[in-house]
Amino acid sequence: MVAIAHMGILSFCSCYPCLPSPRSFNKRTTFAMAAMSDDPVREWILSEGKATQITKISPIGGGCINLASRYDTDAGSFFVKTNRGIGPSMFEGESLGLGAMYETRTIRVPRPFKVGALPTGGSYIIMEFIEFGISRGDQSVLGRKLAEMHKAGKSSKGFGFDVDNTIGSTPQINTWTSDWIKFYAEHRLGYQLKLALDQYGDSTIYQRGQKLMNNLAPLFEDIVIEPCLLHGDLWSGNISSDKNGEPVILDPACYYGHNEAEFGMSWCAGFGGSFYKSYFEVMPKQPGFEKRRDLYMLYHYLNHYNLFGSGYRSSALSIIDDYLRMLKV
To answer: Reduced to 3 states, what is the DSSP secondary structure of residue 148?
Structure first.
């Protein structure tokens, strides 16, 4: 097996604590795992990973909640993240997202190999280690490859994902929904607005946001929305390139949604004209794209408000008010 490896630019989703996992392991399960192996990472690498020896383990900086390490072996290298305080569900969400993107055979992502519980508590994920290049790569290639992923990754279940995951450290609800407007209103905007109300008592942004949620339909007239596989958190920290200059995306918050929602973090991604030109050559621009652009940014501004505080409130509220004026509600 060729294990090509992954050097860790870790996004802010690795730097802020997630809420406790809804899944846990009872004492009997933990004891059984500990009896089987005190080091399940090492055990997997030396069995299913096809290595006969681990030659070096090197810590990789960048995260403040997950510990990241590079495992060098005689079968190649592996990238391992561990978390001593959270069960496997967080890494399971990441693994399923990476796996879904990997299966499209379009843009390069670290291939996930194994997720599990640590015998003393916590969890781990083992994945492909990708040696990064010196730049973020060619924007036109990134745009084309991303569009190819959106075109290839479709779902017959509707909008959502098989598991809930996290956006930063905020829970992201991915309940399957047949209608995109309903999904985006309830599980994206609505969840963040309720969080702002609960966390800050911000009834102003909550009430205005609710009014917008109930009046989104005119922004989606005359278009067909297919559920496309989205990375979900595509900002500059989650974009790199390999040693050959091919784009690499990592640390996803995947779900199936309107392809335009992928650009919701564009204010923090640095996408240029060549990126969009290449993207739209594969996935043609739909009528009203410009009108919906800020709507998809709103989700991420609200999330930043909930994660980092009032510095993002004015941007989120301004977007809401602009739409209320545009829609005359």
So the answer is: helix
